[in-house]
Amino acid sequence: TQLLEQSPQFLSIQEGENLTVYCNSSSVFSSLQWYRQEPGEGPVLLVTVVTGGEVKKLKRLTFQFGDARKDSSLHITAAQPGDTGLYLCAGTTPVGQNFVFGPGTRLSVLP
Amino acid sequence: SAVISQKPSRDICQRGTSLTIQCQVDSQVTMMFWYRQQPGQSLTLIATANQGSEATYESGFVIDKFPISRPNLTFSTLTVSNMSPEDSSIYLCSTSGPFVDTGELFFGEGSRLTVL
Fold it and tell me: Does A28 touch chain B (CB under 8 A)?
């Protein structure tokens, strides 16, 4: 069974601070996605990373895929209350195209 | 990306009853997925609904408890049968796209069930 771990599980910070969320596995994934889920909504795709070492930026969010395609990080610069939500990483396995979700990081950005 | 609509968005149900959740996609899709998200938890895949064949269930989920229909390429239903309080969760419909191998999933807004 391929598992994804996320850290931290919970994070409460002040507006304007920076933060990094980590997603780790002992398994290789053909691609990895980050989603954000707000209360009462379904998860919304933020980014997909496919190539080992890849870095993608989405405004104040920077995503990195590990060289070995086993881990990823999400860095948020100058966090805002609108960034509050549950951040989920998910991986696509190389065989069988199964989707595996991490346990999530619940972020709260206080004004 | 696909737009996915679910009904009902929320419901309160009595123990022992069954509830059917509907999922409508605005375009034809090959694979549709049903997930469960228990309070404060991540997503757990219940089953993959394929048009024209029976759904494929994940370990721990059975057809008698969670029957699924997939009558066409834009619609699916999930029934939660003989409900108990442990079934209180958010149930999410999802589809993949545009390319399955990139692993991108698009979700409905979810159906929040509370079983008393």
Answer: no
